[in-house]
Amino acid sequence: MDVKEIEKRDSVLTPKQQIDRLLRPGSTYLNLNPFEVLQIDPDIALDEVKKKYRRLSILVHPDKNPDDQERAQQSFEIINKAWKTLENEDTRAKCMDVIEEAKARTDHM
């Protein structure tokens, strides 16, 4: 399944499903990738990243999830961290370097 298919599938998740996705087993490792957290393609423009960030942050916001506030707060913080990483030119460039390196390695397999 490619990134676009995953993005499309996950874009319809409910707030609870998004919280579950962000806090699932192994999420600590997966959430190191801000593109994975925000469910976006690495080549997406910054204004589109911001739209996705806003949509997700509203969806998992603790005030919008009163029955699951603690987990919602954790999810909200994960999404905020991903946005801060991608909105900063230097940290976004570092993420892109890691992705390009990973692509190069998998292309040679």
UniProtKB/TrEMBL annotation:
Q: Show the GO cellular component annotation of the record.
A: nucleus
InterPro entries, per the entry:
DnaJ_domain (IPR001623), DNAJC8 (IPR042858), J_dom_sf (IPR036869)
Q: Where are the transmembrane segments?
A: none
Q: Which residues form the J domain?
A: 33-109
Fetch the Pfam families from UniProt.
Answer: DnaJ
Q: Which domain of life is it from?
A: Eukaryota
Where along the sequence do coiled-coil regions lie?
A: none
Q: Entry's SMART domains? A: DnaJ (SM00271)
Protein name as it appears in the record: J domain-containing protein
Organism equals: Timema douglasi (Walking stick)
**Taxonomic path:** Eukaryota, Metazoa, Ecdysozoa, Arthropoda, Hexapoda
